[in-house]
Amino acid sequence: MAVFYRKYQEKREGNKNFGKWYGRSVILNTVSTKDLASEISHATTVTYADVLAVLAGASEAMKQHLQNSQKVVLDGIGAFKVGINTVAAATSAEFGAQNVKNFRVLFAPEIHFVGNGQVTDKNRRAGNYVKDLLQGVTAKEAPKNAVVDAKTPTDPKA
């Protein structure tokens, strides 16, 4: 499996990376809850309706826990928690709920350590942390958009 990317050149003058090239991931498709329920039901002995009900229930349960300032950990997937954006106050006494301006959901994928069999200079095991959801992924340049218009106007005013 590969995550596709497209190459982009930095074109903002004054930017320290002006003229340099970098990549951005490309989303090829969107998978809905119903799509996931169908895949899961085909891979297990659970019916489509049951999987759909469990996913809907999980969404509602996660919402309740997140709104009660709890972290939700889904084994094999990762952890979800609520983050906030606030406006500063001059003193602690002046800071309150009115200073909270935005809420967001933060996601941290589940990771595990993969040792490489070596030991560091400080006598610690060497290796890397791997995100379970991305284990084994590779990168591949997205194909060019090869859309050809069926009608080729001969008159520039057409």
Task: Give a structural overview.
This protein has 158 residues and is α+β, with helices and mostly antiparallel strands. 20% of the residues lie in helices and 35% in strands. It contains 2 helices and 8 strands. The strands form 3 sheets. Strands 2-1-8 form a 3-stranded mixed β-sheet, with no helix packed on it. It has a 3-stranded antiparallel β-sheet with strand order 3-4-5. A two-stranded antiparallel sheet has the order 6-7. Helix 1 packs across helix 2 (48-67). The longest helix has 20 residues, at 48-67. The chain starts with a strand and ends in a 17-residue tail after the last strand.
Please give a handful of descriptors for the protein shown:
158 residues
Total helical elements: 2
Which of globular, elongated, flat, extended, rod-shaped describes the shape? Answer: extended
Strand content: 25-35%
Instruction: Give helix % range.
Output: 10-25%
- Termini separation (Å)? 44 Å
What series of H and E elements makes up the topology?
Answer: EEHHEEEEEE
Number of strands: 8
- Major sheet: size, sense and barrel closure? 3 strands, mixed
Question: Which helices and strands, and how do they pair?
Answer:
Layout: E1 2-9, E2 21-25, H1 33-43, H2 48-67, E3 72-74, E4 78-86, E5 100-109, E6 111-119, E7 125-131, E8 138-141
Parallel strand pairs: 1-8
Antiparallel strand pairs: 1-2, 3-4, 4-5, 6-7
